[in-house]
Amino acid sequence: MLSEIAFCPKKPQLLAVQDSSKNADTALFFYAGHAVQGDSRNYLLPTDAVLCGEVDFSRKGVGLNYVMEVLEKSNSKVNLVMLDACRTNPFGDFRGSGHRGFFNRGGNQGGLAAISTTLPGTVIVYAAAPGKGASDNPAGRNGLFTEGLKHAFNTNKNLSLDGVLDTASRWVTNKSKNRQIPYVNGPTPLQKDFFFAGSKEQLVSQQRLPLPQDKPKLKAEEKNDELPPVVMTYILKHWSPELLTAAAFLDKKQFQKALPFLLQAASRGEAIAQFMLAGMYMGGLGVNRDPAKANKLINQVYK
């Protein structure tokens, strides 16, 4: 696609990014390929571009600043820009584009320039530190940084942006023997609060939670006269272990301990868990009060 848009950055292919991410919660721009720095500006280049000098960067490439303008106009809440492209400018301090592998061989035009942005909610991730080259990983199918991201998604249970990038960075640094260290430019709180799997609550609901070793009991289990035996038998037989654990914590008013188990049970469609969770959101018990979320949970029960 880049080859098609490189000669005219305003072609519909790139503007489609702006349209598809209009007012979106998250816009992700991921680029793996050739890119160079020229005069402290970064340009994404098609692999078949014939370059005669730095003047061709803007004519045959797409400026990263233009990409940032597209994201700004999309008005998305969170913007993630990931660049697996840090190459040496062949028209900088030396001639020749070098060899596959690590492309930084000295000079002040190596790698990409760090860019600052005032665009709120934006994180820019570079395959290597500013001014440093990145490995093409000639022995593999993808660049070293892309392989690091794949490793992070496949092995990391913490799918926060911070968790994924930390795992990927450690993997890349280790594989490159400290020659390539990914670089992140963006607000730290956003990196910790953004989850690729959705919200923190959704992430918890998707994971199998270990039950407490000293599993709490329901009051009705401890006091046999609390409920008729037939009701207690039904509860113990039909409620999931997560729901039983959550209910026991709720009996003791330990709302925050109950929350992850309720989320998991509710995510599987257990109506009792959805009702209990709705009650917590309606009353602000262990969570921020959210009547809209409570009503949504109740409506799910009656679908």
Q: What do these coordinates show?
A:
This protein is an alpha/beta fold and 303 residues long. It folds into two domains: 195 residues, Rossmann fold (3-Layer(aba) Sandwich), CATH 3.40.50.1460; 93 residues. Helices cover 44% and strands 11% of the residues. It has 14 helices and seven strands. Strands 1-5-6-7 form a four-stranded mixed beta sheet, covered by helices on one side. Strands 2-3-4 form a three-stranded antiparallel beta sheet. A hairpin with a 2-residue loop joins strand 2 and strand 3. Helix 5 crosses helix 6.
From the coordinates shown, what is the CATH architecture of the largest domain? 3-Layer(aba) Sandwich
Order of strands across the biggest sheet?
1-5-6-7
In the residues, how many domains can be counted?
2
Cα-to-Cα separation, first versus last residue: 43 Å
| CATH level-3 fold name of the largest domain | Rossmann fold
Instruction: Compute the number of strand runs.
Output: 7
Low-confidence stretches: 1-11, 93-109
**Mean pLDDT figure:** 76
Structural class based on helices, strands and sheet pairing: alpha/beta
* Topology order in helix (H) and strand (E) letters: HHEEEHEHEEHHEHHHHHHHH
The number of helices is: 14
Top-tier CATH class of the largest domain: Alpha Beta
**How would the global form be characterised?**
elongated
